[in-house]
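Consider the following assembly input.
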Amino acid sequence: MNIGEHFIEALSSITSNKLRSGLTILGIVIGVAAVISMLAIGNGAQNSITNSINSIGTNLIYVSSGNQTGKVTNPKAITIGDANALAQLPEVAAVASTVQANGDVTYNGQNTRTQVQGVTTSFATMRSMTTASGDMFTDANVSDRSSVAVLGSQVATTLFGDPTTGVGATIRISGQPFRVVGVLASKGGSGFGSQDNMVLVPITTAQSRLSFRKRQPDAVDQILVEATASDTVNQAGDDITATLNQRHHVANGISDFTILKQADILSTASSIIGVMTLFLGGIGGISLLVGGIGIMNIMLVSVTERTREIGLRKALGARKSDIRLQFLFESAVLSLVGGIIGVILAWGISTVIGNIAAANNTPITPIIDMNSILLATLFSAAVGLFFGFYPSNRAANLEPVEALRSE
Amino acid sequence: MILMNENIVEELSKSAKAVPGHPVGGQTAAVIVAHELTKTYRMGTMEVHALCGVSFEIQPGEVVSIMGPSGSGKSTLMNILGCLDVPTSGTYILDGEEVSLLRDDKLAVIRNRKVGFVFQSFNLLPRASAIANVELPLRYSGGGNHRKQRAKEALQLVGLGDRMNHRPNEMSGGQQQRVAIARALVNNPAILMADEPTGNLDSHSGKDIMQLLLSLNRDRGTTVIIITHDATIAAQTQRVIRLRDGELEVSA
């Protein structure tokens, strides 16, 4: 018999018991669809998070006080003076200091609690923020301790009902009046470092008018450093460490501050999502395995039911390999059909989840790549062959005399 | 019905003469040579001697019936003669080939080429049409572009030329047994083994099937071996091999 005949025979035997075959196939469909859609969603999430981190800027280095890896007691605060010293380093293109706290922002009865950041003007350009309406406050605003604020688009939406209006209005932050000079353009993204849900005020104003009190008057929470290029980030990091060690009189080699490169954040986030994707894919893989066991189960039943037929075929001259191929083809066709339907279903699931995510303002675009389709289809075919092997071998090794005698 | 097909039988028997493996007149080397066949089954610690040294020959073109009460070793002998099983000792030469020492796959090839089986319960594939059932042995003999044609000729030979696309459940018992006979003949085997071929049929269609087997022997020279416990069936054959307790009783 050639492959075509085997295939047709397998199809006719599968269609002769539609309900049973359908349920068996369903097991594989669910497994394949789970694997592919989980991988697709994982890939999509990875892409979305990578993009949102990249959109913050890739050459950035964050410097903050304290060191969680070493045992540091009484770390010195990071100060404006430190920031000015770092600005002198050759690999450093720009420096911005920030203080931050959560504050209640109100306007005309509307009220939202959000992160209030006191920043210098370079902050917005370093974080690639642009305004949708109005402008960023100026250096003069910073030196004058002006009560001006720039709103994230989500805050503007909450207060004014529109992500671009609000310029010129006077809002209150923790009770203090601030004039809105600009609204930031939405960047999307959610969770980590969401740029849409924050309010920017001059750092000097924040230190004096809002209750961001520090032990030292010139202390800041974080210094943002932008390296001149992505390949000087590491050098800049080393220089920053050296400069601050010197300024903080670090003697024992354990810095009392932490520097965090954007690239580190990116790779950490990627590896977290990678693990998550693997985990989800693994769950999908388990359901595929269960589907495979379903195939084996049904093939064993089928072999038992058709013992007499197997005996007859052997009496008519079928060799072991003929019988083995017949049953292997059946299980392979079952799992292949399941695999194909599973791929289609996974595509549907991914589209639906992508739409749901978009509707909820967390744009994850599930990515079904050729690799995951190939992986799942090959895996399902392998499952079919693997779990078909034992039953078909059992059929092939039946003694014709015994098989013919069975009822 | 059989009369209707006499012409076709004539025609086919002519063409069958060219087929190798089928005895053609002249030299009469025995198609079956069984020498001192024994078969011993082990059941736990007990040994059961199903056959204890059976020897006989069957010439090409003979119609032989094998009779015996249940437990006489009749089925065991049939399994060995049909190459479904091998003897514990002794030699069995089928159509010039020593088969008593062959293993599974080699035996399968011998069954395919040299033995045509007709079973008491027909054993047709229920989902397949008559012609697909008849074609089945040809599928396992590999190649063969004229499978449809040969299956069609075999069905015409047994008088079912107009039922080729019917399924077994659309046919009477007699018709189903005709399909089984066509299937047994389609590879031009050296012997036709019929195991109680009329056992599941009413007396009328039973008579028909016996007539068909005898006419196949008469017109095509097919060697027919019938396993039966029905004396009236055995009486229609040229020779009766009787078994009792695993030994030959009378061999005429």
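The first strand of chain B starts at residue 32 and ends at 43. Ask yourself how this observation constrains the way the partners meet.
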